[in-house]
Amino acid sequence: MPEGSPASGGNPGVQVPPVPPIMVGSYGKAGGYKFTEDEVDSVIGQWKDLLTDLHKDRQHAETIASVTPPADEVASHTFVERGANPSGKSLLTEHESMVTYTQNFIDALIAAKKKITITELHNAEAMKKQTQSGL
């Protein structure tokens, strides 16, 4: 998948694996996850809970990525510039890919539940937003 592609959340440098095939009832592609129509709402809820937790965790990753030296001296600056900040930025990048993958998985579950493609789901959401904004 190309960097910066829609599946990567548009983030350059972030590569997010594609969502596996999902079936709800008899709709969808075989070879991945299969849920009954009774199960899918619970599964969507669990993935949405995970997404909420990931959004909360993002604050911790941002704090680590933007840590400042505790003192204005060489050892503190070296620790931050060569260790803490690069590690924090890497953590933030990986965290963003988890958020993107989770959102993509939720979209795929909802699309399969509604028996539509992900593209149709996104188009319907875009039209709803345009209608709500008065365009």
Oligomer: single chain
CATH class of one domain: Mainly Alpha
Give the strand line-up of the largest sheet: 2-1-3
What amount of the residues lies in strands?
5-15%
- Element pattern in H and E: EEEHHH
Enumerate how many helices there are, as a single number.
Answer: 3
Proportion in helices:
55-70%
Residue-averaged pLDDT: 85
Number of E-state strands? 3
Give a quick account of the main beta sheet: strands, pairing sense, barrel closure. Answer: 3 strands, mixed
Within the CATH hierarchy, at the fold level, what is the topology of one domain? Answer: Helix Hairpins
Ends: how far apart?
33 Å
SS content category: mainly alpha
Give the CA-based shape. elongated
pLDDT < 50 runs, ≥5 residues: 1-10
Explain how this protein is built.
The chain has 135 residues and is mostly helical. The protein has a domain of 91 residues: Helix Hairpins. Helix content is 61%, strand content 6%. The protein contains three helices and three strands; from the N terminus they run βββααα. The longest helix is centred in the last third of the chain and has 40 residues. It is elongated and about 65 Å long.
Q: TL;DR?
A:
This protein has 135 residues and is mostly helical. The protein is 61% helix and 6% strand.
Topology at a glance:
Elements: E1 22-24, E2 27-28, E3 33-35, H1 40-65, H2 74-113, H3 118-133
Descriptive keywords:
3 helices; mainly alpha; Helix Hairpins; 135 residues; three-stranded mixed β-sheet
